[in-house]
Amino acid sequence: MKPSKEIRILLADDEPHIVQFLEMGLVNEGYTVRSAPDGMSAYGLAMDFRPHVAVLDVMMPGMDGYHVCRMLKEAGNAVAVIMLTAKDEIDDRVKGLTIGADDYMVKPFSFDELLARIGARLRNQFPDLLGEVALGPFKVDDRRGEIRYEDRLLELSPTEYELLKYLVLHHGTVQSKAIILDKVWGYDFGGEENIVEVYIRSLRDKLGDKEHKLIRTLRGAGYRVDLP
């Protein structure tokens, strides 16, 4: 998903391989990213960079993530703070939330989960930044819950909207039925995988994709949206 406006994200972690991996992924998603190896550097960078979201590791040399979070909030910065920790203790979460952290993630975590948490914070605290996302012939407006295809507004049910949005935003990659069920219907969905086929068929009808060139079926693997 490519944000419609510049969205700035600050990463602070003393593990270089984690920072490199996250920075590469976030830049690929269209975010503007800066990183710091310790708390003091992170705070100084934040004063100049003015991030919308700060992802802070709790355990950093010199100044820990809690301290950085507290200073950012006390400085009046309009920044959403996501804390990262290797611990899964309730007391640690309470401490982070008490000093102003907006969310909390325990290592190890998936990149998709971090993306989801960042997206949630942006929708909550900076809704005007997300706007409309244009990808090929599609325009996805998450604020209005609308998708246009070749400038034609599609009449979609809520589930059709979420499914098409997911496939379009992950265009060029194969999505299995299991992954689609997890991402669109939720991990606790108790129905059959065939429900995905039913919704794919409905989307193809509404897109006029009779030859399945837009939403392709890869037998035994899943579905893939190919954009011109």
UniProtKB/TrEMBL annotation:
SMART domains linked: REC, Trans_reg_C
GO molecular function: phosphorelay response regulator activity; transcription cis-regulatory region binding
Domain OmpR/PhoB-type: 130-227
Keywords: DNA-binding, Phosphoprotein, Transcription, Transcription regulation, Two-component regulatory system
Listed Pfam families: Response_reg, Trans_reg_C
KW Protein transport (keyword) present: no
Organism, as annotated: Paenibacillus lycopersici
PANTHER family cross-referenced by the UniProt entry: REGULATOR OF RPOS
GO cellular component, one term: protein-DNA complex
GO aspect biological process, one term: regulation of DNA-templated transcription
Portion annotated as DNA-binding: 130-227
Superkingdom field: Bacteria
PTM annotation (4-aspartylphosphate): residues: 57
Gene3D superfamilies the UniProt entry points to: 3.40.50.2300, 6.10.250.690, Winged helix-like DNA-binding domain superfamily/Winged helix DNA-binding domain
Response regulatory domain segment(s): 8-122
Protein known as: Response regulator transcription factor
Keyword match Phosphoprotein: yes
